[in-house]
Design a protein that fits this description.
Helix 2 (45-53) packs across helix 5. The chain has a single domain (6-147), classed as Rossmann fold (3-Layer(aba) Sandwich), CATH 3.40.50.2300. Strands 1-2 form a two-stranded parallel sheet. It is built from 5 helices and 2 strands; from the N terminus they run αααβαβα. The chain has helices spanning 6-20, 45-53, 69-72, 81-90, 123-147, and strands at residues 75-78, 99-102. The chain is mostly helical.
Length: 148
């Protein structure tokens, strides 16, 4: 929601995977939140630490989703149903062609339907988020590179 935990982690993980696959030139990767409460702030220090332990650099600065994002991006991926509902409401006027999906739809090694918000939990929550994102980003990369 606020673009300081899950989304910047997903951005960093996916960026790392497309770079490793040698296809970074085919992607524009960004993250944003459905609320602007943390706009202008870096990712939560606990999420940055969990990412750094796995070799990811969470260096994005929080921003809120804009209407123009629905035109700019082919895919907008939500971490949970609340955010997906917010995105669907934002795009209800039919502007933009971005396909809206849930991140866990691309996971193959986890049965979670949503990436849980680790903000109010302990370090295990951040680790679980990283596990889910690595799995889902592998699936997302596979799907996007096969379909193009």
């Amino acid at each position: 929601m606020g673009n300081i935990c899950r989304s910047p982690a997903a951005e960093a993980v996916f960026r790392s995977k497309v770079e490793a696959a040698g296809v970074a030139d085919r992607f524009h990767i960004d993250s944003a939140g459905t609320i602007g409460y943390h706009s202008g702030h870096p990712a939560d220090h606990r999420m940055r630490a969990a990412g750094a332990e796995r070799g990811y650099n969470l260096d994005s600065i929080s921003r809120q989703v804009k209407k123009s994002d629905f035109d700019k991006f082919d895919h907008i991926i939500a971490m949970d149903m609340d955010n997906l509902d917010n995105l669907q409401a934002m795009s209800a006027d039919g502007s933009g062609d971005a396909k809206l999906t849930l991140m866990c739809d691309f996971a193959s090694n986890h049965s979670d339907r949503e990436v849980p918000d680790p903000y109010y939990g302990g370090s295990k929550g951040f680790e679980h988020v990283m596990d889910l994102l690595e799995d889902a980003c592998d699936g997302l990369l596979g799907e996007l590179t096969l379909s193009s």
